[in-house]
Recover the amino acids of this structure.
């Protein structure tokens, strides 16, 4: 078996996601991504059942596999129990592992997600945290968020939250023992390895593109992947 | 489909919801953007319904958003979830109730995966032990917080001070129910009413006197899309999907939207503000938007709680038109006060949508 397909076939998401697609297009009809992007989950499923290594290589380098929103509406509706959303999960994992994700604009965005959501988890124990969300990066939060953030101690106290406190409750400070558990889990389950892959391939790509690269959010490559709108809606 | 047929369809998807003794798993998004809702849920369970529910300081994110964004492997999420189960066991509970729909989908998916791939469960146990020294037992009962409110909707109705009735016209208020995709689209049998006719929120509307709004895009995704929102360049996806829903529901003139998913509640609120900024368009009439409520906020209102103690001042879409229709007596001047009435200013008013 060809190398890429061999790896893809080992992923349980691939095993669960594809039996035999009959190309009915039900998934595409219901897919929110297909309504706004040039994206077609039926074609993803059909391409994969060709078992063509070159076609798979092209998919892994494409924007296509990054357009799904993982709502999993396709899982509900497919009459043959295929799940294009699961296939996308397997394709994304393989695209990162092989470094092919940096070939597409949307693939390169993984660095921005790793440096926001990924790093928030290890620093705070939350996927998102009020201290990291501002209206510069998230302008749709609106003026209410600016007001709340500026007055977060008073507002959160009024609402009974336990912001940054070492106790149970809303927005409490996650104890060190829990953060340490998360760090050890990330180490033994391959999350740190995936983070490193995203960082290393991104750094090489930035060098190829001649774009300044550094850690954190205050550098040209982060801004380039986070807000570049060339190929978007 | 007529109402009787729909009721039969709903009845075919019922699920077991434990009656008492819950381990409570919090939501990252709700703690940040709806910080009063989870505590009000706990208040309803503990103080009003006299149930036992444990809020564990040791819990963490389930990592679901990271998993669905493709930045961490499934194995990582499985072991983090196994750790949450271990914490539940250590606290002496076996009924797991989670506040986030993404988490509910994650927990359900992992338990289902372990049935089909038992070697994954064994590997998860091995990795959890290696990383944390912990062991776990699978929950006896796994539900979402909205399931629990649904289960006790009649008890809540019996204590209510308000019905979902327009104070002036005496007609039922028209309520849009929006169900997070991962509540029942992944596993329809795990949601009340299934994926096509979910009844978990519609049941609250019916029981509390309101009228459901059956509009064409009722089951469409809010557009969160995980990486489609998290990366600024992709947000057109998220905005466009929400707009599709607003345009579809607008002719039915809904009085409010309720949602059971953290992300959906947030996006259906914030994108109305953005659409007003981009197009000058508002959906609620008189330059207001359509108020978007969590199911706990709606519960609190009908039970007679102060909307500003429920956290409704930190919505970007003003809730006052809905409060006025309900006939709730509230103080406009207190909306943006801090603890003990402290004056902390108020948000800037956007040009095209009224927020107070």
């Amino acid at each position: 078996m060809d190398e890429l397909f061999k790896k893809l076939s080992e992923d349980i998401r691939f095993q669960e996601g594809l039996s035999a697609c009959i190309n009915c297009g039900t998934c595409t009809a219901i897919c929110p991504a297909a309504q706004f992007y040039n994206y077609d989950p039926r074609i993803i499923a059909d391409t994969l059942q060709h078992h063509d290594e070159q076609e798979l290589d092209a998919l892994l380098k494409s924007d296509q596999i990054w357009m799904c929103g993982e709502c999993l509406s396709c899982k509900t509706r497919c009459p043959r129990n295929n799940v294009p959303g699961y296939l996308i999960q397997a394709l994304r994992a393989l695209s990162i592992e092989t470094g092919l994700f940096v070939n597409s604009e949307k693939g390169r965005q993984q660095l921005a997600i790793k440096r926001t959501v990924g790093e928030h988890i290890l620093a705070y124990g939350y996927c998102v945290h009020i201290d990291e969300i501002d209206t510069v990066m998230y302008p749709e939060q609106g003026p209410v968020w600016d007001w709340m953030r500026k007055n977060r101690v008073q507002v959160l106290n009024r609402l009974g939250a336990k912001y940054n406190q070492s106790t149970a409750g809303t927005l409490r400070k996650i104890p060190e023992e829990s953060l340490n558990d998360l760090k050890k889990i990330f180490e033994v389950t391959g999350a740190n390895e995936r983070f490193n892959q995203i960082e290393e391939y991104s750094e090489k790509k930035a060098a190829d593109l001649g774009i300044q690269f550094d850690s954190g959010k205050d550098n040209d490559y982060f801004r380039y992947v986070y807000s570049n709108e060339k190929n978007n809606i | 489909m007529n109402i009787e047929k729909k009721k039969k369809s709903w009845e075919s998807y019922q699920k077991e919801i434990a009656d008492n003794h819950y381990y409570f798993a919090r939501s990252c998004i709700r703690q940040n953007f709806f910080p009063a809702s989870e505590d009000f849920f706990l208040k309803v369970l503990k103080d009003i319904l006299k149930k036992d529910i444990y809020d564990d300081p040791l819990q963490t994110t389930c990592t679901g958003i990271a998993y669905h964004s493709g930045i961490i492997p499934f194995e990582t999420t499985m072991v983090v979830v196994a750790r949450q189960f271990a914490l539940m066991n250590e606290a002496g509970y076996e009924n797991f109730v989670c506040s986030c729909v993404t988490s509910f989908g994650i927990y359900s998916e992992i338990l289902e995966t372990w049935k089909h791939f038992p070697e994954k469960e064994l590997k998860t146990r091995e990795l959890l032990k290696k990383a944390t020294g912990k062991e776990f037992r699978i929950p006896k009962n796994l539900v979402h917080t909205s399931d629990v409110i649904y289960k006790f909707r009649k008890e809540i109705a019996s204590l209510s001070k308000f019905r979902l009735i327009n104070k002036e016209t005496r007609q039922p208020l028209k309520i849009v129910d929006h169900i997070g995709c991962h509540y029942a689209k992944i596993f329809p049998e795990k949601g009340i009413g299934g994926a096509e006719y979910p009844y978990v929120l519609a049941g609250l509307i019916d029981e509390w006197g309101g009228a459901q709004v059956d509009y064409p895009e009722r089951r469409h995704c809010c557009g969160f899309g995980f990486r489609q929102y998290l990366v600024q360049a992709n947000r057109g996806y998220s905005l466009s999907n929400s707009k599709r829903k607003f345009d579809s529901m607008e002719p039915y003139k809904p009085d409010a939207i309720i949602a059971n998913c953290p992300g959906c509640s947030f996006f259906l609120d914030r994108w109305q503000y953005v659409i007003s900024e981009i197009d000058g368009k508002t959906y609620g009439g008189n330059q207001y938007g359509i108020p978007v409520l969590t199911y706990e906020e709606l519960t609190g209102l009908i039970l007679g709680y102060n909307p500003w103690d429920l956290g409704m001042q930190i919505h970007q879409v003003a809730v006052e038109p809905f409060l006025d229709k309900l006939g709730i007596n509230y103080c406009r001047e207190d909306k943006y006060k801090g603890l003990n009435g402290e004056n902390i200013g108020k948000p800037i008013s956007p040009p095209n949508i009224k927020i107070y």
About this structure: Residues 17-145 of chain B form a domain with the Glutathione S-transferase Yfyf (Class Pi); Chain A, domain 2 fold (CATH 1.20.1050.140). The CA atoms of residues 14 and 192 of chain B lie 5 Å apart.
